[in-house]
């Protein structure tokens, strides 16, 4: 009864004020962490599905809250959204990871973008500035977004997408297969890549209907000529099925957990043998 969607109250409960207080305190601590540059970025390997070569990394935010320990991004990202901190947090992650990418020639980078950032009219301009100051080629970078904002505000979303495309950055649809994506809307936005949601990947093994669902989802993307990355790959069997279904890139614990830049350095020197 606590929450229905993320952080959305449905009915009054006596503990409500207390929980709100806890969230307010967390937002204050999060603001301090952003001010003090305490938000860290880890990088998860993304590999080519046929050679298993490292081709890209996804930047993921990490926050070690003083006195509490690590807080999951599934908790602090919604709080950043609700408290107006997401613009700064998102740009901080982008800045840190672009600087890091300068040390990894040949690799590509994915960075997550929240709907709240998309709503900021200055967003595309800030992105352009960060490419300018870091000197990174925008074609090496993919911004990952979920469908929420595209469905809620398609007109505005299209305008921002056009600006980002002019910069040269690519756009991926994240969590594909977990929502309501129709062919019409996928075509309309012309995404550069789709990322199959890990819930769909991990349903593989629940019977042959799951394989068919997955094949249909990948086929939908490929019918639009859009390359597909699968996330949440944990087993060899999943990797095989996903490659056969037509995914050109794989990401998941099977290939590596999100890790420090030093761990990515090591992977680049010694390609993974599976
Ligand atoms: P996401 O963008 O869908 O990222 C993939 C999540 O799946 C990551 O969780 C990753 O650690 C996890 N994952 C990867 N491979 C596996 C696997 O094989 N098995 C399992 N069980 N999980 C796997 P994480 O890092 O906890 O991030 C959760 C979500 O928080 C992300 O989901 C993304 O929506 C959001 N997030 C993280 N960092 C940022 C950020 O810098 N900006 C924004 N806007 N959102 C972020
Ligand atoms: Ca993502
Ligand atoms: Ca996802
Ligand atoms: Ca997600």
Quick summary:
The protein is built from twelve helices and nine strands. The chain is α/β, with parallel strands linked by helices. Residues 58, 112, 144, 174 line the site of one calcium ion.
Task: List the topology elements.
Blueprint: H1 16-35, E1 40-48, E2 54-65, E3 69-71, H2 73-82, H3 86-101, E4 108-112, H4 115-119, H5 123-134, E5 141-145, H6 148-152, H7 154-167, E6 170-176, H8 183-189, E7 193-196, H9 198-202, H10 208-223, E8 228-230, H11 236-245, E9 249-250, H12 261-269
Parallel strand pairs: 2-4, 4-5, 5-6, 6-7, 7-8, 8-9
Antiparallel strand pairs: 1-2, 1-9, 2-3
Helix pairs in contact: 3-5, 5-7
Domain EAL: 23-272
Organism: Rhizobium wuzhouense
Protein name: Bifunctional diguanylate cyclase/phosphodiesterase
Structural summary, described in words:
The chain is α/β, with parallel strands linked by helices and 274 residues long. It contains twelve helices and nine strands. It has helices at 16-35, 73-82, 86-101, 115-119, 123-134, 148-152, 154-167, 183-189, 198-202, 208-223, 236-245, 261-269; strands at residues 40-48, 54-65, 69-71, 108-112, 141-145, 170-176, 193-196, 228-230, 249-250. It has an eight-stranded mixed beta barrel, surrounded by six helices. α3 packs parallel to α5 and α5 runs parallel beside α7 (154-167). The protein is globular, with a radius of gyration of 19 Å. The N and C termini lie far apart (44 Å). The model has no long low-confidence stretch (mean pLDDT 91). The site of one calcium ion has 2 residues, from β6.
């Amino acid at each position: 009864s606590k929450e229905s969607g993320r952080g959305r109250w449905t009915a009054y409960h006596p503990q409500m004020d207390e929980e709100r207080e806890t969230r307010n305190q967390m937002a204050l601590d999060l603001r301090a962490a952003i001010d003090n540059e305490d938000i860290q970025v880890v990088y998860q390997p993304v590999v080519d599905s046929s050679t298993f070569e490292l081709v890209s990394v996804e930047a993921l935010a990490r926050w070690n809250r003083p006195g509490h320990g690590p807080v999951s991004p599934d908790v602090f990202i919604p709080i950043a959204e609700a408290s107006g901190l997401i613009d700064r947090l998102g740009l901080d992650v982008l800045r840190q990871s672009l600087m890091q990418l300068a040390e990894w020639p040949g690799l590509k980078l994915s960075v997550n973008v929240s709907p709240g950032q998309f709503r900021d009219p200055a967003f595309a301009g800030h992105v352009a500035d960060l490419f300018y100051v870091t000197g990174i080629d925008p074609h090496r970078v993919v911004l990952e977004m979920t469908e929420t904002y595209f469905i809620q505000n398609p007109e505005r979303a299209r305008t921002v997408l056009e600006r980002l495309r002019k910069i040269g950055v690519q756009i991926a649809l994240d969590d594909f297969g977990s929502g309501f994506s129709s062919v019409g809307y996928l075509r309309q936005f012309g995404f550069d890549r789709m990322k199959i949601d890990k819930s769909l990947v991990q349903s593989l093994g629940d019977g042959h209907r799951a394989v068919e669902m997955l094949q249909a989802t990948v086929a939908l993307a490929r019918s639009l000529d859009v390359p597909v990355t699968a996330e949440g790959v944990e087993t060899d069997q999943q990797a095989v099925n996903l490659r056969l279904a037509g995914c050109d890139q794989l990401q998941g614990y099977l290939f590596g957990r999100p890790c420090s830049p030093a761990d990515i350095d090591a992977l680049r020197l010694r390609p993974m043998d599976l």
